[in-house]
Amino acid sequence: MSADENTPVGWDRARELAYQAGLAASAGTERIPLAEGDGRTLAEPLRALTALPAFPTSSIDGWAVRGEGPWRPVGRVLAGGTPPPLTEDGTCVEIATGAMVPDGAAALIRIEASATGADGRVTGVPRPAPEWRLPGEEAELGEELLPAGTAVDPAVIGVAATCGHEFLTVRPAPRVALLVFGDELLTSGPPGAGRVRDSLGPQVPSWLRRCGGTVTSVTGPVKDTLDAHVDAIRAALDTADLVCTTGGTMHGPVDHLHPSLAELGAEYIVNTVGVRPGFPMLLARVPHPDGRPRFLAGLPGNPQSAVIALVSLVAPLLAGLSGRPFRAEQPLVEAATPVPGRGRDTHLALAALDPTGRVATPVGHVGSAMLRGLANAHGFVVVRPGAEVAAGDTVPFLPLPLLSGERP
């Protein structure tokens, strides 16, 4: 086990190390029904099982006609049926939107652009462009629609269904266990008498799910002894790919995380990150008897710092474990007000976006132990080491983890 806690890893480098560690450990696939796919990751390209559309499809309600008009109606075509061909010039069939266009039809005429004479014949003028969708217009049979690594959302499920899939081949969802450390924590009621209410146990599982993890257990508060910490971590590692802990990441008299990792033979991937708030955080690889490595992410005990550790280390690790691409670059926004730097460290400053999503305003109540600012923010303005941000500057913006299906 090696690390130098006096030399923090740069924030961008720490995120990349976390992602690469997860990607190297990503393995296996499973086949699941479409209805269970939301939030998962495609393990293989999604290909069309048929041309889309599979047959010529009417885009309008009206008439399918053959030859010159006026046209004599010889039938009706509704969606879901297979019509006989039009074989005689001067004939037509009434057709509904979504219905299969019969062979032999030369054009479609909208119902509102047609008229029916006293003899029952139809007149009208078709538009210059045919008003039907041609087979293969959206996709050809066997065409790759989405690559492996695509995050599955409701739209992806819809694409899979429309071209004939009933199942998806996906990466296993990373399993995550949460251990809450701290004898001073209350799990119910208001804080007082030297004890504080645990706010991480209730909120961290939801952040983990938004990052793509499946939460297997939440345990705590774990007693502040080395034996209790080691036992809790061992038990969690038996059912989880990643164990997240809260608190105990420093070297105080009741901070047992580092000694626990040494006891377990862990290897640091990242030990302390040059980011504020968020100090100190860590990510370690822990050996397991089955030969497949597990991971432990140590989140600081202060709530805002813990969330910054989640977006800095846990989110990229879970992206790697899920086999999906990692978006290292952040979208750019305009800073509404100045944002200070934090010297040699990256500063993640909580901010809210305006309705356009292009202007970020820092929020108040942003101490590392505070949550009020987090509840009013959409993400973080990223201030690079040695930099300061002036009002009007263009700056990177790191969104908070989104619900499955949401798009930044």
From TrEMBL:
Per the UniProt record, the lineage of the source organism begins with: Bacteria, Bacillati, Actinomycetota, Actinomycetes, Micromonosporales
**UniProt keyword annotations, A-Z:** Magnesium, Metal-binding, Molybdenum, Molybdenum cofactor biosynthesis, Transferase
GO function term, MF aspect, one: metal ion binding
| Pfam families to which the protein is assigned, alphabetical | MoCF_biosynth, MoeA_C, MoeA_N
Query: Per the database record, which ranges form the MoaB/Mog domain?
Result: 177-320
Q: What is its EC number?
A: 2.10.1.1
> Which protein are we looking at?
Molybdopterin molybdenumtransferase
What the record says about family reads: Belongs to the MoeA family.
Among PANTHER family, the record links this protein to: GEPHYRIN, MOLYBDOPTERIN BIOSYNTHESIS PROTEIN
Q: What does this protein do?
A: Catalyzes the insertion of molybdate into adenylated molybdopterin with the concomitant release of AMP.
Reaction catalysed by this chain?
A: adenylyl-molybdopterin + molybdate = Mo-molybdopterin + AMP + H(+)
Q: Record's CDD domains? A: MoeA
Q: SUPFAM superfamilies in the record, alphabetically?
A: MoeA C-terminal domain-like, MoeA N-terminal region -like, Molybdenum cofactor biosynthesis proteins
Q: Which GO terms describe its biological process?
A: Mo-molybdopterin cofactor biosynthetic process
Regions that span the bilayer: none
The terms describing its cellular component in GO are:
cytosol
The UniProt entry, under InterPro entries, shows: MoaB/Mog-like_dom_sf, MoaB/Mog_dom, MoeA-like, MoeA_C_domain_IV, MoeA_C_domain_IV_sf, MoeA_linker/N, MoeA_linker/N_sf
Biochemical pathway: Cofactor biosynthesis; molybdopterin biosynthesis
Co-factor(s):
Mg(2+)
